[in-house]
Design a protein that fits this description.
Number of strands: 11
Radius of gyration: 21 Å
Number of domains: 2
Number of helices: 9
CATH superfamily of the largest domain: Gcn5-related N-acetyltransferase (GNAT)
Strand order of the largest sheet: 1-2-3-4-11-5-10-9-8-7-6
Structural class: alpha+beta
Helix content: 25-40%
Strand content: 25-35%
Order of helices and strands: HHEEEHEHEHEHHEEEHEHE
Distance between the termini: 33 Å
Shape: elongated
């Protein structure tokens, strides 16, 4: 007997139905035709792969796999509420991960809104691992100068800044890995990505990147990565990290003060994402008037 939920690539005649299911849960009306056309273009141009599950012509779940720089695959799955059956989408996720293991990619990631609790169940069924709930923070407008913090924070006179392009690759990789040791942000990622892939993945976000390293007496003590996101008119802090030896000395505050200063010079609001469990970082970011906005739940799976 044929398995009615066996994942498959959609047949040409049901492609629009599968793309529609990718965007909407089974109980919702279909998306606008223009939205479906946009996904068709993505599927054609970005080496994406679409999986669907359920009756031919009327799939019940779907997953889109998007290869991304840094040997990672982003997965987009049907948004599901608590009353929706997660099994069809879960089976599609399982198939997508199995297919990913045939590529040279190392990690797959799925992100959804917290309200999509059925999508979370599908992720579990598909064999994914919960990573974090990510909180998006941003300033309401162009930040104000953080003069009071500059005066009170220690180490100010000792810190020098350099562009990471001026560092040897090995030195940059070493300090980046050091900042990951016992880090409180997304600890489930530790040891799962190579430094080169981390750098490539970060730099695929936004434009006009600026990698900066902080030094104290010629010793690398922290890194900061910024990028502009023109579509949202923001300066995004993609990564901020301090090596273990220098934690507890307000160095993270100095890194954020530098980001704040650059946001002011570029006349852009400041933004970032943070693991909601990272209470120490959240406390720091509040000092720079970064306020919580939307959040997302992230899942990962190793596929190498």
């Amino acid at each position: 007997m044929t398995d009615p939920l066996h994942p498959r690539s959609p047949e040409p005649k049901e492609l629009d139905a599968a793309l529609g299911r990718l965007l909407t849960p089974p109980s919702a009306p279909p998306p606008a035709p223009s939205t479906v056309r946009g996904l068709r273009k993505t599927l054609r141009e970005e080496r994406a792969r679409l999986w669907c599950s359920g009756p031919i012509g009327t799939p019940l779940g779907a997953v889109l796999t998007l290869p991304r720089p840094g040997r990672i695959e982003m997965l987009l799955g049907t948004p599901l509420g608590p009353a929706d059956d997660p099994t069809p989408t879960g089976r599609c996720l399982e198939a997508a991960l199995a297919s990913g293991r045939q590529t040279d990619n190392h990690l797959a990631q799925l992100v959804h809104v917290p309200e999509a609790v059925g999508t979370a169940e599908a992720a579990k069924l598909g064999g994914m691992e919960w990573l974090a709930e990510l909180q998006f923070l941003r300033t309401a407008s162009i930040p104000e100068p953080a003069t009071s913090m500059n005066a009170s924070a220690p180490l100010q006179s000792k810190i020098t800044w350099c562009d990471c392009d001026d560092l040897e690759t090995q030195a940059l990789h070493a300090v980046l890995l050091d900042t990951y040791v016992d880090a409180q942000d997304c600890p489930g990622l530790r040891g799962r990505r190579e430094p080169e892939d981390i750098l490539i993945g970060h730099e695929a976000s936004g434009v006009r990147h600026q990698w900066m390293a902080a030094k104290i007496e010629q010793e690398l003590v922290g890194v900061l990565l910024l990028a502009e996101t023109p579509e949202r008119h923001l300066l995004q802090v993609l990564y901020v990290g301090v090596v273990p030896k220098f934690r507890g000395k307000r160095l993270g505050q100095k890194l954020m003060a530098k980001a704040n200063e650059i946001a002011i010079s570029r006349k852009l609001p400041l933004s970032l994402h943070v693991d909601r469990r990272n209470t120490h970082a959240l406390k720091l970011y509040r000092k720079f008037d970064l306020q919580p906005r939307e959040s997302r739940v992230a899942w990962i799976a190793e596929i190498r």
